[in-house]
Amino acid sequence: MSELNLRQFHAAAILRMYDQTKEAKAGDLNVTQIDQRIKSAAVHFDRMLTNHEALVGAAKEEDLEVHSGWWDSTEAAYIDLCATLNQRRRELEGESLPANNSHKVSPMELKLEPLCIPSFDGSAYKWLAFKDAFETLVHQRDLPVAYKLGKLRQAVKAEAVPLVGSLYSGGYEEVWTALKNRYDNPKQLAEIHVARFLNMKSQTEDTSRALLGVVDGVNESLRALAVMKLPVDKWDALTVPIVVSKLSTRTQREWCMNCSPTELSTLNELLAFLEKRAHSLSTELCPVADHHEVLHSSSKQKTTLRLLKSNLATTDDGNCQHCRGSHKVMRCPVILALKPEQRFEALKRSNLCFNCLRSGHSSKLCSSGNCRQCGHRHHTIFCRHKSQQPISSNEVDSSVARPDIISNPPSL
After folding, report:
1. Does residue 156 sit in helix, strand or coil?
2. Is 389 found in the same domain as 313?
3. DSSP states of 194-249
């Protein structure tokens, strides 16, 4: 539990400085004191982050949410502390932020939602997108060094890139430089993205999703090469035939009919054609059925669904709801030994339909037939008209479906 104690110690130090800074009046702190507090807070934050990662790495899955909630609140206090200190420092020096300086960040910006940095799992083809986003959102901004290191460790998966997730991997500048030395290799990156472009999967299906997948794959690879200052806009004579070869036979035929038979087509023209074709495939209309046919079909579906729900709801486990014996309640010897009015009282609290003696619906919604002896809306075992005569099993099990008969059960 040493990591837990150390994490709590450094967090308490940050919160203490946070409270002291909030309580300090204008003029209580000079520039030197403010700079020292910023440096001290950065050291505590860095060490707190190291111990926090060790705890998260060893925590159970059900405890991760607790750790995450604790970290969010503590990180917010640290950001607010740095923002307040920097603001007071600028006030003391009489400085104001230049309006056209895109690399500076105001204290209010630090109080916004945490920056969402795309993750990097060590895959070389993802490096350029990650580097561009991280440099824009974090690296080139006027943020505390410890905060930058924390964001870098959050974005790069430690299991895939151990040099970032080790307990001691150096300061922010050392870690960022090590990452760039390993992955920012122009020759290797160019080969990877060219290979991804050439090895795109051929499309056998002529669907909107397949065509948009081709467009996105081409754009992703060529944009990465363009970021590396390669003249991809001059490669149309090569890229267009390669992309066309990946399309389905039907789309290739449509493209040949669409493009000029004598002039070279550009890649932008081909991608625009694929976008338009993908849109047309996603909005193909189905034949509209006759109005009366639609109404009849809808009514029939509703009736079928109601009957299905009713039949499903009436299933039970096969045991008698009255004595729990291995027989149906309609054949229960205890019930059959009683008079009809006594049978009703005995089953009154069983939540059964008194027309079919099954659970899950009322007699008003029951689709079974009526009494075999008198034709009224109740089960045969409740009938009083021939109560003196023995009831046969055929008379007891009345389950002839008559969904057209829906009436209130008679009072017994």
Report:
1. strand
2. yes
3. HHHHHTPPPP-S--HHHHHHHHHHHHHHHHHHHHTT--GGG-HHHHHHHHHHTS-H
Q: Which domain holds residue 135?
A: 124-184
Domain boundary among 110, 145, 160: 110
| Residue 165 placed within a domain | yes
| CA 165/CA 152 separation, integer angstroms | 10
User: How many whole angstroms separate alpha carbon 109 and alpha carbon 80?
Assistant: 10
Residues 343 and 379 both lie in one domain: yes
Q: What is the pLDDT of residues 1-10, one digit of tens each?
A: 577 888 888 8
Same domain as 14, residue 106: yes
- In this structure, the answer to whether residues 269 and 355 fall within a common structural domain is no
Task: Report yes or no on 300 lying in a domain.
Answer: no
What DSSP assignment string belongs to 253-311? HHHHHHS-SSSPPPHHHHHHHHHHHHHHHHTPPPPPPPHHHHHHHHHHHHHHHHHHHHH
Give the model confidence (pLDDT) of 8-54 as tens digits.
Answer: 888 888 888 888 888 887 777 788 888 888 888 888 888 888 878 77
- Number of structural domains found in the chain: 4
For residue range 138-177, what is the model confidence (pLDDT) as tens digits? 888 888 887 888 888 888 877 778 777 654 556 788 888 8
Q: What is the pLDDT of residue 283?
A: 60
Token pair 């205890």 is found at: 334
Asked if 228 and 197 sit in the same domain, the reply is yes
Helix (H) or strand (E) holding 268: helix 267-282
The helix or strand, by DSSP H or E, that contains position 4, with its residue range, turns out to be: helix 2-23
Which letter does DSSP use for residue 95 in this model?
-
> Cα 177–179–183 angle (5° rounding)?
125
For the stretch 346-384, pLDDT in tens is 777 777 787 787 777 777 778 777 787 787 777 787 787
Phi, psi of 265 (to 5 degrees): -90, 150
Q: What are phi and psi of 71, to 5 degrees?
A: -65, -40
Burial readout 31-70 (b: 16 or more C-beta within 10 A, e: otherwise): eeebeebbeebbebbbbbbbbbbbbeeeeeeeeeeeeeee
Q: Closest by alpha carbon to 227, among 155, 102, 127?
A: 127
* Residue corresponding to tokens 């960022």: 176
Does residue 301 fall inside a structural domain? no
Q: Give domain status of residue 199, yes or no.
A: yes
Q: How far is CA 359 from CA 47, 81, 159, 349, in A?
A: 64, 65, 56, 12
Same domain, 201 and 214: yes
Q: Which two tokens stand for residue 254?
A: 């449509």
Verify that 253 and 317 share a domain, yes or no: no
